[in-house]
Amino acid sequence: EAFVTASGTALQLYGPHSGTKLLKLEQQSPVYDVPETGWKNIPYLDATATLSDDGRKLFLHLLNLKEAETMNVQIRLLGRSVEPAGDLWQIASENFLSLNNFGVSPVKVQHQRLTGLSNSFTQQLPPHSATTLELTLK
To answer: Residue 103 above 80 pLDDT?
Structure first.
């Protein structure tokens, strides 16, 4: 028997849903501190953007690090236009400490088709989730 670990599930999310060209992006987010380590001003939102080799697919990778709160992220794309439909790929377990094990897989990649997209929209991120938006550029 075998099972995919939670970290292996992250590879299932990012492997097929990432581009090869890293893009510059700007983000603003609430922050938190970890006094035990001296870490300060850590953003609750971690975001990166990549572009496919052919320049037709944009991948927005969004992490909501808030363990119990949904985050509404305002996304604004500059330059090229986006097609009105896209795909959302997401890992969002009910409990952020969830683990996969033999016969139990609460940590899995979920897919949702998105419609009504434009160059400016708001995306809701569940608590402690990893989300990739796969958008087609015009």
So the answer is: yes
